[in-house]
Amino acid sequence: MFAKENVDYTLYLVTDSTMLPEGTTLESQVEAGLKNGVTLVQLREKETPTKTFIQEALKVQKLCKHYGVPLIINDRVDVALAINADGVHVGQDDMPIPMVRKLLGPEKIIGWSVGYTHEVEQLTKWGPEGVDYIGIGMVFPTNTKKNPKKAPMGPVGVSNILGALQEYEAKWCKTVAIGGLHPDCIPRVLYQCGSPDGRRMLDGISVVSDIMAAPDAGSATKKLRDILAKKRYDFIPGLISNSTTFHPDQMAEYLDRTKTNRPLIQHITNKVHQNFGANVTLALGSSPIMSEINSEFKELSLIPHATLLLNTGSVAPLEVLIDAVKAYNESQRPIVFDPVGYSATETRLNLNNHVLTAGQFACIKGNSGEILSLAGLSQGKMKGVDSGYNGSDLSLLIKATKIVAYRYRTVSVCTGKTDIVADGTFAGAYEPSGGMLGDWSSIPCFTIVCGDIPIMECITASGCSLGSTIACLIGGVSGNANVLGAVLTAVTLYKSAGQKASSRCRGSGSFHVELIDALYQFFTSNQPLEWAASIHQV
Ligand SMILES: Cc1nc(C(=O)O)sc1CCOP(=O)(O)O
Ligand SMILES: C=C1C=NC(C(F)(F)F)=NC1=N
């Protein structure tokens, strides 16, 4: 008998004998997994007739006993009882949990598939005598589960479920994520998936094909265990989190590094912004390239100091955006994401959410309407892609900016009369099956105040070109990457240049030219103390 409270959910193998590679058997794959660190096994054989299923179950049970790992049976409560397995896993359409508990008794492990927060509310009603753990999924698309009824929820979806467990105080309930989990995305899932209150993260990861379909299931398992032992997701090597105050006299070093390193800034952006963004990039001593050709993304991302600016006002098809995100994440190069018109239309909302689940971003920048939507705080639809929100409630915007930074583990920027910058990266650190180092309210956040520049609203690509500026400053950092410092420098530089340009220009046409001149002059002279707007930590 396996004591329930000792179950280790770290690496949960779910079997599937329909995908076995040549020369392997269900037992050989399970044994390779058990030998190399699988901590929990679930026999899930949807197409197998009962007699065979029981024979397989007895063999797998013997293996599990040998390695001291519990065996869970999927769906088949009768089989679980017949062989005295350690527990069962049931889905939403299987036998109701109270009935399963009545049959199995209090000592057995009961798992439930969960995809929606109302299912968490239900399991809380049953209390600790009900569900012992939940499989949260599916996180990403997978071919393993036939006719799935749920759409992939992405890391944010997992975080919402973890948040619901906290909200309904289901402290006893353990969690694993499942669905399309492989070495290329598991590090990010471990880092990004956490409850909004920062107190709960995943207790483990569940895989089917990564091990069951592996020609060498042993090394596949080892690779997963290595990843699961980590406490940092290095999406930018050397990333540090600046929680002390930031002073304008630190800005010169950031500008100098961009000048020295001349970062390549790949723009995938809207047609309106392309030309202006390229000119802003050149004015800031960086090298722009506009490319939407998937096949060259990997190569570009490996160019020293390459940085991706993704502006979804672009007409690039979704898979181009996803390919770019994956290429730059794989090369551990920063991505600046500008979810233009985030929730202005259903199309943009879905496209932007799809991009957001596809990778990790160094910086997410938006106007107040976009940031409020991303934080889930907007009062309904935005109008168009211009700012839209003119409420003066700065504290609401500060809260929204922090929530976005925390939810996406990124440096978030909210532009407006006052610009707001928050750092939710925790320098890539997390506590496996513990919690983050605090909740959204505790993260570093700064405001940059330099008055309103009404004319900024009358030119195209003014917001988009702040994205180019941020990318130039982030792209320049080297060694200890303080993304927050780079972003604060970029936002201050851009706002100050906007001020200068609006005082010199004779209308919106000349404003464009004056803005590039001001950026060029401020960048070249590199005397930030002459122009830097005031920065306050909030
Ligand atoms: C068994 C199962 N349940 C899911 C859910 O979303 O509840 S997804 C899934 C299959 C996961 O297989 P793979 O690791 O090969 O992607
Ligand atoms: C449908 C399922 C969802 N989740 C899980 C697990 F991850 F193991 F909890 N197992 C399943 N069979």
From TrEMBL:
Residue ranges of every copy of the Thiamine phosphate synthase/TenI domain listed in the record: 11-211
Annotated keywords: ATP-binding, Kinase, Magnesium, Metal-binding, Nucleotide-binding, Thiamine biosynthesis, Transferase
Cofactor: Mg(2+)
Catalytically driven reaction(s): 4-methyl-5-(2-phosphooxyethyl)-thiazole + 4-amino-2-methyl-5-(diphosphooxymethyl)pyrimidine + H(+) = thiamine phosphate + diphosphate; 5-(2-hydroxyethyl)-4-methylthiazole + ATP = 4-methyl-5-(2-phosphooxyethyl)-thiazole + ADP + H(+); 2-[(2R,5Z)-2-carboxy-4-methylthiazol-5(2H)-ylidene]ethyl phosphate + 4-amino-2-methyl-5-(diphosphooxymethyl)pyrimidine + 2 H(+) = thiamine phosphate + CO2 + diphosphate; 2-(2-carboxy-4-methylthiazol-5-yl)ethyl phosphate + 4-amino-2-methyl-5-(diphosphooxymethyl)pyrimidine + 2 H(+) = thiamine phosphate + CO2 + diphosphate
Record flagged with keyword Heme: no
Highest taxon above the source species: Eukaryota
An annotated Gene Ontology molecular function: ATP binding
Pfam name, any one: HK
Residue ranges that the Swiss-Prot or TrEMBL entry lists as coiled coil: none
Cited SUPFAM superfamilies: Ribokinase-like, Thiamin phosphate synthase
InterPro entries: Aldolase_TIM, Hyethyz_kinase, Ribokinase-like, ThiamineP_synth_sf, ThiamineP_synth_TenI, TMP_synthase
Annotated Gene Ontology cellular component terms: cytoplasm
Signal peptide: none
Entry's Gene Ontology BP terms: thiamine biosynthetic process; thiamine diphosphate biosynthetic process
Pathway annotation: Cofactor biosynthesis; thiamine diphosphate biosynthesis; thiamine phosphate from 4-amino-2-methyl-5-diphosphomethylpyrimidine and 4-methyl-5-(2-phosphoethyl)-thiazole: step 1/1; Cofactor biosynthesis; thiamine diphosphate biosynthesis; 4-methyl-5-(2-phosphoethyl)-thiazole from 5-(2-hydroxyethyl)-4-methylthiazole: step 1/1
HAMAP family named in the record: TMP_synthase
Family, per entry: In the N-terminal section; belongs to the thiamine-phosphate synthase family. In the C-terminal section; belongs to the Thz kinase family.
Protein function: Condenses 4-methyl-5-(beta-hydroxyethyl)thiazole monophosphate (THZ-P) and 2-methyl-4-amino-5-hydroxymethyl pyrimidine pyrophosphate (HMP-PP) to form thiamine monophosphate (TMP).
Name of the protein in its database record: LAFE_0C04214g1_1
Organism: Lachancea fermentati
Lineage: Eukaryota, Fungi, Dikarya, Ascomycota, Saccharomycotina
